[in-house]
User: Fold this.
Amino acid sequence: MDASLLLLTLIGFLAALTGSMLGLGGGFVLVPMLTLLGTPMHEAVGTSLTAIVFNSATATYTYSRRKLTRFKLGLTLELATVPGAILGSLIALSINERTLKIIFAAFLVFVAYRMFVGKNSENYDFKLKHLALGYLSCFFVGMMSGMLGVGGGVLKVPILVLVMNIEPHIAVGTSAFMVGVTAFMGSIAYWRSGILNPVKVAA
Assistant:
């Protein structure tokens, strides 16, 4: 196997492992690694979204066997997330690479804060079951997902817990399912644009 393909495979494995453990898509790992290897930003985003679909399928199978996935709730919220993902992908394809990288970098800073700082201050006793707010939040998350090549799980899990009153471990399992649906719909525009390399995606 070519060394670059082997490296891509290892990166994909790392992204899948990280994503499945946290209910995320792994895009926050995959996109930076692909760009460091010289992949254009737009291609990296589309490749990441496609990879997230397969990562999500594996994670969803695992969580669903443990009865930790709420499919009905996930699909209900995806009614808002999917339009956001489609819009986000179209926005990304309409802006230049430098701007897209700046937006991604800002999002990455937020993800780092959520994972390493905000996590310690979360209050899971805060209950607010509000479907309208859930829809609005998921639309925004979907837009970020389609634009930046991330599953959005780092935002979906808190939405499920704090807005939809779902237990944290079930929120992770449900998010793992949702990110796959979001990523699939978000990836369509990138495939239609012709910028994706099937070899890189398969790796």
